[in-house]
């Protein structure tokens, strides 16, 4: 029935057809209320803190900047549990006050160069260890030292073999040719300044026979080693020439590490004097 005029007769209500994509206002209002409740519930679980959040480490750095006169003996934390790196530091008269191995993803990025990888991983390890100790009352204001070693031929990167087949393939690839050993070193000072170094050493292997490779694999020395070998161990027999830092190939370039530490005020040489006094006694 059609009605002329401005509207339907009194007592009658015009019912407009509902559009198929029209959502009732009550539904929208109810959905809005539910969204607000959900947001309020989830907000405590969101990460709103940043790496620059307030920590004991930052508070101690500010206090140290205000203090005058002699400071307390600084501490050093090594972001690694590598026995080789500990041995090398001891060789330089350095004994870390604590070890904070950093567990990070060491997978190379797409088209990442060996030098960039070593530098990035060393820095990431140092920062992860720094964050671990930032509120530790014993070592919150310590220096943090980290390193990462990468073996490469050209752009190809050889990581730490996880399986025997991978270790065999790596040694066959290195046999009779030169490769580079790159170590990235990162040092974070107590006031969170970051210093980095990259050290490269060229190593040439002799030709490795199949029995030599099989015997070395059986020794299990290759496990956990970049490039699948340890130059300070049995694999030292494979090396024909080495150009650059030997300690770099072992896992920590001592010359550059000591230079970084002394340059940032860590008393490396004071430990040498103490060692002389101990020997005199």
Task: Summarize, please.
With 281 residues, the protein is α/β, with parallel strands linked by helices. The protein contains 9 helices and 7 strands, in the order ααβαβαββαββαβααα.
Explain this structure to me?
The chain has one domain: Maf protein. Helix content is 38%, strand content 17%. It has nine helices and seven strands. Strands 1, 2, 3, 4, 5, 6 and 7 form a seven-stranded mixed beta sheet that branches. The longest helix has 20 residues, at 114-133. It is elongated and about 65 Å long. It starts with 24 loop residues before the first helix and ends with a helix.
Structural class: alpha/beta
How many alpha or pi helices? 9
**What global shape is seen?**
elongated
Count up the domains: 1
Low-confidence stretches: 1-5, 11-16, 19-23, 25-35, 37-51
Distance between the termini: 118 Å
């Amino acid at each position: 029935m059609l009605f002329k005029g401005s509207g339907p007769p009194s007592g009658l209500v015009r019912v407009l057809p509902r559009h198929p994509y029209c959502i009732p206002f009550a539904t929208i209002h109810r959905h809005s209320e539910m969204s607000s409740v959900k947001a309020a519930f989830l907000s405590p679980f969101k990460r709103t803190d940043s790496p620059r959040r307030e920590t004991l480490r930052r508070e101690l750095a500010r206090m140290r900047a205000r203090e005058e006169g002699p400071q307390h003996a600084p501490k050093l934390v090594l972001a690694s549990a590598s026995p080789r790196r500990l041995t090398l530091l001891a060789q330089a008269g350095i004994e870390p006050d604590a070890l904070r191995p950093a567990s990070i993803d060491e997978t190379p990025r797409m088209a990442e160069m060996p030098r960039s990888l070593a530098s990035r991983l060393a820095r990431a390890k140092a920062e992860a260890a720094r964050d671990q100790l930032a509120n530790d009352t014993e070592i919150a204001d310590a220096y943090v030292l980290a390193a990462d070693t990468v073996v490469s031929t050209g752009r190809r990167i050889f990581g730490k073999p996880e399986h025997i087949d991978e270790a065999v393939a790596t040694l066959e690839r290195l046999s009779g040719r030169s490769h580079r050993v790159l170590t990235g070193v990162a040092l974070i000072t107590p006031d969170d300044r970051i210093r980095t170094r990259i050290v490269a050493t060229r190593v040439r292997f002799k030709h490795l026979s199949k029995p030599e490779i099989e015997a070395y694999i059986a020794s299990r020395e290759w496990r956990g080693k970049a490039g699948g070998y340890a130059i300070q161990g049995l694999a030292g027999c494979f090396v024909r020439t080495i150009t650059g830092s030997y300690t770099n190939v072992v896992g920590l370039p001592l010359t550059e590490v000591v230079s970084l530490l002394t340059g940032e005020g860590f008393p490396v040489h004071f430990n040498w004097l103490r060692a002389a006094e101990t020997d005199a006694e």
